[in-house]
Amino acid sequence: xxxxxxxxxxxxxxxxxxxxxxxxxxxxxxxxxxxxxxxxxxxxxxxxxxxxxxxxxxxxxxxxxxxxxxxxxxxxxxxxxxxxxxxxxxxxxxxxxxxxxxxxxxxxxxxxxxxxxxxxxxxxxxxxxx
Length: 130
Prior knowledge:
Elements: H1 2-7, E1 16-21, H2 37-50, E2 55-63, H3 65-75, H4 80-83, E3 86-90
């Protein structure tokens, strides 16, 4: 919430893209992507209300095919405007896996915090298309 307030302050015209990286990392207590469906449904319902017009898009990655399928079922119960804010990118969620290359179509490495650079090295060769 604090990062969103800094990136897109209330009353401003800036919008933020929120990245939710589901990959595990040594020492992190990451929840497996399949168990994140309840969180995604809650986030889809709560975040647009708490941050109206400030959260442009939510990108979740990497999603396994089965989780993407379940999301397609769950998201069918959401308003289209809310559902369209969420983008699921496929990829491996194993320890040390690179981020999905498609992420580079939405963000560049320099837009991420420095502590996230190591996990997003695949973005160094990509540029955001405008």
